[in-house]
Amino acid sequence: MWLAVAPGAGAAKVSVNGILAGQDWPRKDSLMNDDTRLRDGLAPSESPQESVAAAGPGFLEQGLGGQDLPEAGHSPGAGNGVYAALDLGTNNCRLLIACPSGDSFRVVDSFSRIIRLGEGISATGCISDAAIERAIGALSICRDKIQTRKAKRLRLIATEACRAASNATGFRDRVAAETGIRLEVINRETEAALAVLGCSPLLDPNGRGAVLFDIGGGSTELVRIERNPTGPNAAPRIKAWMSIPLGVVTLAERFGGRDVTPQSYALMVQDVANHIAPFAAEHGGNLRDMHLLGTSGTVTTLAGVHLNLLRYDRRRIDGIWMNDADITATIARLLAMSYQERADNHCISVERADLVLAGCAILDAISNAFPLPRLRVADRGLREGMLVEMMREDGVLGVCR
Predict the structure, then answer these.
(1) What is the mean pLDDT of residues 158-173?
(2) What contacts 8, CB < 8 A, 6 or more positions away?
(3) Whether residue 239 sits in one domain with residue 152
(4) Ramachandran area for residue 125 (φ above 0: left; ψ -120 to 50: alpha; else beta)
(5) If pLDDT is split at 50, 70 and 90, which confidence band does 102 have?
(6) Do residues 210 and 194 both lie within one domain?
(7) Mean pLDDT of all residues belonging to the chain
(8) Is residue 4 part of a domain?
């Protein structure tokens, strides 16, 4: 798992199952130095159903500072050993810069900011001018960090907002012109596979598999992962996956996210349930020795509220287990809060106060469709998946099982 330390402090290496406490984790514009231990990851060189697609376009333009930026997808071998993974989502812009370290990678810089790129797309079909400005501001910071750290191996992706918006091509062209970043718009299958690659270290090593879900701003991915029961220490494989065009932003805009009543919450749960019912009917059987594995701001926020943290602390969240009773009680607690009470909670803040209950509704629908007794919370995902994939392609990261 990651270990967050103060900027400039020495890096630390932590086993994936180690849950440490005692340090706060900033929710935006965050920096961390750490090593990520990889265990039970997907094996390399698998099909897209079982792994991820190769890196696509990325930095192709010249940065504002006049410095030529490397082309994403180019493999310099080990190069200078600095890798960067950027995930421009419907709600967040996230960057992770890391160096391989044995069967782990050491994070040297990171960035995360809520930008709400998908705000209003469900109504207008377009990325708004305000959202474009927020995104370019965040991406400019990412560009500067990549240049400062001299990262040579890059993957820079965009997800649902850039899949759905009618002006997405113009937006990406403007991003390239103003920041030097050429974004790769990935499809939903690749998004699901990257989430699996990033989160698979948190699979219960004694279990048969998991139903992984990634609640985004504009879409939600569901993946059934299983190990081969006949192979000792077998790596997990994707058995089935689906993606629905509902995330916290789209659902909150459709039903209202500020003032959520039990009735409007039930309508959100039912809307999501209708979308995932066919997948659950086909792939929801034989759940013995499996668990839920959730990666999203929703589940990490829910875990922070469950622990009554005064401030979000990533080291206490990533890898934590929650049972059915924990989830039900925490969602009921959030439903009983006013918008202002949610905004005043340091694990939620004003940035998520109008989105968190939409995310809880998605979680409730998934939990009802896949009635598993335990949920493992992952504060990791696409960026980690991209880093693992690039490093394994370059032969600088072992497959640790």
Answers:
(1) 95
(2) 33
(3) no
(4) left
(5) confident
(6) yes
(7) 82
(8) no
